[in-house]
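Ticket closed. Logging final result for 1-deoxy-D-xylulose 5-phosphate reductoisomerase.
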Amino acid sequence: MTIQLITVLGATGSIGTNTLDVVAMHPQRYRVFALAAHSQVDKLFAQCLQHKPRYAVLIDPQAASRLRKLLAEAGSDTQVLQGEAALAEVSTASEVDMVMAAIVGAAGLRPTLAAARAGKRILLANKESLVVAGDLFMHAVRESGATLLPVDSEHNALFQALPAGFDGDLAAAGVVELILTASGGPFRHHTLEQLQHVTAEDACKHPNWVMGRKISVDSASLMNKGLEVIEAHWLFNTPAEQIKVVVHPQSVIHSMVRYHDGSILAQLGSPDMRTPIAYAMAWPQRIAAPVQALDFLTMGALTFEAPDLQRFPCLKLAFDCLKAGGDASAVMNAANEVAVASFLAGRIGFLQIPQLIERALSHSDLSLSSDLDCLLAKDAAARALVSGWVPA
Ligand code: NDP
Ligand code: MG
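Final structure:
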């Protein structure tokens, strides 16, 4: 078997680290071409020593100089690159077979889009790329013939439960609807009164999954599910009306596809991202992943309930933005990123997140941008608006 070269964008994060666990389990199959992060030098340094990539990329210049020095002292051959352009370079290099897109937020869009335009096999964790620029992104994938494989556990489950070779024609495939499961997050039982007082630490204590801080807050507000509804729309060419969300607190069923004949196909597994990562890496084959097997004899009951849009309005906002079309989802995402960062910094309360997003939507031009620069200008304008509303 020929060894496949992988670039990991967001290597130091939760998805990046899980990806490297899977890579380490299959040294005869995968080798790391490049590891990229923002500024976490020590973790990237340790990863470079273990995986010996040809390149390491950091955005922060001081962090890049420090990493260069550390690697030189350790006698490593890894070359350190710095800056945003380098992310695209290591995602499009001709030697690269696959790119794990696991930078958090809209910052992941440019390099992931570059990989799409270069026709790479893209393992997509960075859902914000599709939320911000779904139309542009899917167009690039179709034009270049890139292979887009969903890593997000729900979309990976849907991908597994849809017919092989599904081409986006729901009717021809006999699909009635996609059912996304949601854990409900750490505040599932909180009253509105209690939600006023929750802290960043409370929000980051997810009951089932260990994740980065931004997506943890998104999970707590149900914005993560909202982003995933939009992601499912683009990945599977499915209108909002045919995407349902059900709260399933045990996170055993990762999502389901309902067919015309009454069948519902689900994918089950432990709540461990290494399963969908391994699936995307090896597709259409399967490789082993270092995860604990589900035990049906000790699992207990699987339960289901409707999401509460009163307490968690972010999910409704996302459905509304998807239905509105244009750049509504991009503006929503930008506002959410600033609001979540402000909440994590202790500058606003949890319930202000949806309020700020709604206000940003009502103050922004939501018509569809014609190109990426125009879209990113709108993203920047929405960020500036929300930043201006947040107390210093
Ligand atoms: P983390 O916060 O754990 O990691 C984020 C990674 O992105 C880090 O490596 C960070 O580098 C890097 N990064 C941040 N900003 C930039 C930037 N401007 N340029 C380059 N690199 C940057 O996030 P997660 O791993 O949790 O999430 C990553 C993506 O995957 C998100 O889009 C999330 O929605 C998605 N996802 C995550 C899941 C999970 O279980 N964690 C599940 C499904 C989807 P540094 O460490 O140097 O800051
Ligand atoms: Mg998910």
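Residues 372-389 form the longest helix (18 residues). No further action required.
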